[in-house]
C-alpha cells in the first residue's frame, strides 16, 4: 500500500480510524499492543489527528508513525489472507519504511530519550549518548537512577521543575560525563501524562552546546 507523499501523519491517523471504525480508545489500545509499550493517550491521539497539539513532538510522531505502519501491516495480512493474495511485496515495502525510520532515530546526532517515572527507568536512549556522555544505552537501562545521577547538582531542582512545564521550549543544563567532565546541553523536554493526569514519563531531545557556553563565558 503506497501512502501518498503529501499525506500528513494526522491524515494517516484519521484514515486508519475510518478504515477500522475503531473508537479512539480502541485505537490507543491497538497501538500499545503492537508497539509493546505505552504511548500517547487516546485523547492525545485525537488532539493530534485534528491538529490541536500545541507544538510538534518528534517522539510522539515517531511512535504514531510506527504504530500506524504496524497496525496497517496486520490489517493487510488479514485482508490478504482472506482474499488468498500474496503478501510478500506489501509487507516488504512497509517493513523497509519502518527500518529506515528506526535507523534515522538510532543515528541522530542529538540525544533522544524516554524516561519512565513509576517505576523509574530509562525506556529508550539512542546510541549517540556514548559520544556525548561516555555511557552506553545499556548502562542507562541497567541503572534506573543514572539519568538523575548525571544531572549537575546545581541544575537538578531547576531542571526537574522545567521538565513538568509543557510550554517551556528549551532548557539549558549541565550533565556530568562518565569521566567526570561537565558538558552543557540544551533540549526540549515533554512531560507525558496518563488519563488521570499523573506525570508518568518524560520524552526529550537534547544537543550538546559546551563549546557555545565556553565561548560565552570567555574560556
Describe the overall structure.
With 219 residues, the protein is of the alpha+beta class. It folds into 2 domains: 9-106, no CATH class; 111-216, PAS domain (Beta-Lactamase, 2-Layer Sandwich). The chain is 49% helix and 19% strand. It contains 10 helices and 5 strands. It has helices at 9-20, 24-35, 42-49, 58-83, 88-106, 129-133, 137-142, 146-149, 156-163, 210-216; strands at 111-117, 120-125, 171-176, 182-193, 199-208. It has a 5-stranded antiparallel sheet with strand order 2-1-5-4-3. β1 (111-117) and β2 (120-125) form a beta hairpin. It is elongated and about 55 Å long. It starts with 8 loop residues before the first helix and ends with a helix. Residues 1-6 and 96-101 have low confidence and may be disordered.
What is the element layout, followed by pairings?
Layout: H1 9-20, H2 24-35, H3 42-49, H4 58-83, H5 88-106, E1 111-117, E2 120-125, H6 129-133, H7 137-142, H8 146-149, H9 156-163, E3 171-176, E4 182-193, E5 199-208, H10 210-216
Antiparallel strand pairs: 1-2, 1-5, 3-4, 4-5
Amino acid at each position: 500500500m503506497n501512502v501518498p507523499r503529501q499525506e500528513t501523519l494526522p491524515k494517516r491517523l484519521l484514515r486508519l480510524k475510518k478504515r477500522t471504525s475503531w473508537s479512539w480508545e480502541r485505537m490507543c489500545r491497538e497501538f500499545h499492543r503492537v508497539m509493546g509499550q505505552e504511548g500517547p493517550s487516546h485523547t492525545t491521539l485525537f488532539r493530534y489527528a485534528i491538529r490541536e497539539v500545541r507544538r510538534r513532538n518528534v517522539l510522539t510522531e515517531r511512535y504514531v508513525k510506527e504504530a500506524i505502519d504496524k497496525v496497517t501491516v496486520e490489517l493487510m495480512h488479514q485482508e490478504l489472507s482472506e482474499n488468498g493474495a500474496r503478501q510478500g511485496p506489501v509487507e516488504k515495502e512497509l517493513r523497509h519504511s519502518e527500518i529506515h525510520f528506526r535507523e534515522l532515530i538510532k543515528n541522530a546526532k542529538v540525544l533522544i530519550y524516554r524516561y519512565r517515572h513509576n517505576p523509574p527507568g530509562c525506556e529508550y536512549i539512542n546510541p549517540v549518548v556514548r559520544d556525548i556522555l561516555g555511557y552506553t544505552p545499556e548502562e542507562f537501562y541497567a541503572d534506573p537512577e543514572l539519568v538523575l545521577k548525571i544531572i549537575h547538582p546545581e541544575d537538578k531542582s531547576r531542571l526537574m521543575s522545567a521538565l513538568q512545564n509543557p510550554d517551556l521550549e528549551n532548557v539549558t543544563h549541565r550533565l556530568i560525563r562518565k569521566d567526570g567532565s561537565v558538558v552543557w546541553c540544551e533540549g526540549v523536554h515533554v512531560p507525558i501524562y496518563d488519563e488521570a493526569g499523573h506525570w508518568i514519563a518524560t520524552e526529550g531531545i537534547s544537543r550538546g552546546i559546551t563549546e557555545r557556553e565556553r565561548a560565552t563565558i570567555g574560556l
